[in-house]
Amino acid sequence: MINFDKTKIQSFRFARCSLDAETGVARLVYAFDDGPELTETVTIPGAPFALNAEQEAAAQRALRLLHLITGVSYYKAAVPAEIRIDGYAIDSATAVLLEQTYVHGLGEFAYRNGLNLHGRIRFPVSQSSVAPAAAALGLRQHALVAIGGGKDSLVSIEALRSADVEQTVAWIGGSQLISVCAARTGLPTLNVGRALAPELFEFNRQGAWNGHIPVTAINSAILVLAAVLHGANQVVFSNERSASYGSMIPGTGEVNHQWSKGWTFEQIFGEYVQTHVAADLHYYSLLRPLSELAVARQFAKTDHYDAHFSSCNRNFHILGERPVNRWCGVCPKCHFVFLALAPFMPKPRLVSIFGRNVLDDVSQVGGFDALLEYQDHKPFECVGEGQESRAAMAALGERPEWREDALVARFNQEIRPQLDVSELKTAPLLELTGEHRIPAALWERLRANFAA
Fold first, then answer.
1. CA-CA 20 to 30 A from 158: which of 116, 199, 238, 265?
2. Closest Cα to residue 159, out of 301, 26, 279?
């Protein structure tokens, strides 16, 4: 039995990492102080991997990036003041990426636990460690596309298909929901295995700090390593521009549940990959110029995935999923996806997908108020901005088939009169705007499709 007391821990150590090209297994080893080692494994299918010297060096750089970013899962258990890296040194650019990812990616975790991580997290920089600019590996034109089982990644997959981009849909972990959705695409798949150190769950039982971590950052690092091993030149996520905006907490400021899905992380991580891993490996979100409503409109164009997709986070758990139904109908994700799709889908189709009309249930008032940022802040969930929810609700309030439903009628009577007319228009929210990292030639091919 390991005795874990977070108050007595002084340091967190990145002990070592290794990659076996014969099996595709990466071993990521951590420890607190001089305590027992915590070993996580990540298994990339497709082994054995035959790598030349340049590819092997790039894989080693991607492995270290994965080791450093995945450490956030373990560091958070005690958040000690000292961070140590055994066996290799990092440069200042690496330290900046890591400090931003840990501080902002653990923002919700810190808020909920009453912790202040600003100024506390410092990665040791070696003054003699100056990483040479990463070379191009001659990677093939192929996209590894992260699939999460929800509408967003499916929109990306179909957009890439329409642009004739060769792709493999990839996910991490053993989710049957995602597996079924991936199979429905009819495309090649890559299911990466990830096994956390079992001691972490024991630490949690003994009072470790616990809470939300930047999962997208970890998954991004995993797929970068997978792309190097498989020789693919693109790692594609499906994070829309709404992901860059957090919840405004009175007395605290902005706390973004989905920081590692936001533009800031995409920008610094994508640039880091090209300068430190492989110059011709492109990391980007295909949906960055779109709002959540624009993504919903795009998804509604086909019913191919109606019986297969799910954005309900109650179905996804680190210790295994419990998908009694694909939609629980009561969580913030169910609320928001239903509301976002409603303006763009026939009502019977949407109700059939969810198995209920969520907007005609008075017990759901509190959940929708949070989405509307009415008497509450935006939920700590991957949902759109309050303005998007207000505009979608306003659009429904003008339609005969929706306006008699309990929550839509309440919006019209109680909330709508308090809002400026400019906040109720969906058209401006459907425009393609903002910065992105989508390759220019690809974006030119996709722009018209997204705007239609």
1. 265
2. 301
